[in-house]
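Weekend entry, working from home. Most of the wet-lab plans are on hold until the incubator is repaired, so I used the time to fold the two sequences that have been sitting in the queue since the last round of cloning. Logging both here for the record. First:
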Amino acid sequence: MTQLHEYADKFENIRMQRSNGVLEVTFHTNDGPLQWGLGPHREFEQAFLDIGRDVENEIVILTGTGAYFSGPTVSPGGHPGKSEMTPSRYDPIYWEGKHVLVNLLNIEVPVISAINGPATRHCEIPLLSDIVLASEDCIFQDSAHFQGGMVPGDGVHIVFPILLGPNRARYFLLMGQEIDALEAKRLGLVNEVLPKVALLPRAREIAAQLMRQSRLVRRYSRVVITQSLRTQMAAELLGYGLAMEGLARMIDTPAKTS
């Protein structure tokens, strides 16, 4: 088990505060919008593990900082570092990738996301929340995988077919499609679309409503409604996808001829 004082201040890209059992988790980079990279990739895996092991967390709210939730958007073919990847460099990414979404789903209390703007890098993370709130200017896109020259294999290949359906998900992942907030609501990706200033107050209002239920009903409800997602994440699908993503990023060496 963990306690808040042990992990609240140890992350560069995550701020945490808790009041009356409601833990607010705010993603950022230097107090501005989250800039996705190897640092957040490493920290999210550990943070979700710590949060899930703290029994004093009763509700979790995930949100971002500033004008957008996560970025920067990767332009077509523009993913950095692809030609420099080796098996040794990819190994920690592979390990973290197998755990980050599983650790999120292993948080055994209701999770609310308050998505404060465009999420063009790893938008599957807030979209996996039990209750998803989005600001009116939200855009959802998977810009860093196929569009950026990478295999969409680190969980998005599992999450989006579940959330969007298989045909829409394949189009979304292969075409770098942008889905705005209202379309996301129509498709069932988000539950409510709100003005940005109303987003966090609404998340806190919902948290207070959920807190009226007994502790075990809250916790066990979260467990049962995420069981199928956890099963698919923990199965061979996630490791296989990460292996394919890594293989496609390796340095190509010419085959030797005799």
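Second, folded right after the first finished:
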Amino acid sequence: MARGTTISLYLVNSDPSGIVCAYLSNWTGQAIKIPRNLLEVQK
């Protein structure tokens, strides 16, 4: 049987539709979600 995992989500700007960082317990990496409209386009 699989064990559960704790996922911690941090809302960088206190907005769930903005930048979100995710951390999993017992994992050294992190995931970052950035909406396209917050990215700058370089030409």
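Plan for Monday: verify the second prediction. Residues 17 and 35 are 8 Å apart (CA to CA).
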